[in-house]
Amino acid sequence: MKSFLKVISSILIATVVLAACAMTPRVSSWESPQGFTKEQVFNAAIQAGGQNGMKTTASDRESGTMSFSKAIGEGDMILSAQIAEANGIVNVQTTGNFAGRIALAGLHEEVITNFHVLLFRNLKISDPAAKNVRIEVLK
After folding, report:
1. In this predicted structure, what is the pLDDT of residue 99?
2. How far apart, in whole angstroms, are the C-alpha atoms of residue 138 and residue 25?
3. Would you call 90 helix, strand, or coil by DSSP?
4. What's the Cα-to-Cα distance from 41 to each of 12, 20, 89, 101, 122, rounded to whole Å?
5. Given this model, what pLDDT does residue 91 score?
6. What is the pLDDT of residues 82-92, one digit of tens each?
7. Rounded to 5 degrees, what are φ and ψ at 17?
8. Which conformational region is residue 24 in: left (phi greater than 0), alpha (psi within -120 to 50 degrees), or beta?
9. pTM (whole model) above 0.85
């Protein structure tokens, strides 16, 4: 009986840890190669959100911010992007959050990765070296 309780306790702890990881926001960053403008990347990002099946919930061209949402299961995946330009390099920072009951492990990364794949397609970037997206768990 004691070993059964230990197994059940271990399963419960693992479930809680996995659920917490699935709920933790993810952030990504990408720096464009030379030659792109903030406006070009902004336009391509707005298109990428729609092509990814997401609804634009907010966008501000001047500040370079946008937010998207997509209903998934019993919740919404929310993707926010901040686009800035400095020294001829455009930087895209994204944050993926899930709002709802149950988040699936890997869902944040999948939505962020799909967004960037479509962004690169819209910008006609095919060079693998230009696709240097870094996705991390928000701390």
Report:
1. 76
2. 5
3. strand
4. 44, 33, 11, 33, 9
5. 93
6. 999 999 899 99
7. -65, -45
8. beta
9. no
Strand order in the sheet with 55-60: 55-60, 65-72, 75-86, 89-100, 26-31, 134-137
Half-sphere exposure of 119 (CA within 13 A, CB side): 30
Locate 110 and state its tokens. 């999948």
Bridge partners, 89 (sequence order): 86
| pLDDT tens-digit map of 6-25 | 545 544 443 433 344 345 67
Q: How many residues does the chain have?
A: 139
79 vs 117: CA distance, rounded Å = 15
* Cα–Cα distance measured from residue 15 to residue 73, given in angstroms and rounded to the nearest whole number: 19
C-alpha–C-alpha distance, residues 56 and 69, integer Å: 7
Give the whole-angstrom CA distance, residue 14 versus residue 55: 34
- 57-85: b (≥16 Cβ within 10 Å) or e: eebeeeebbbbbbeebeebbbbbbbebeb
- Residues 30 and 92: beta-carbon distance below 8 Å: yes
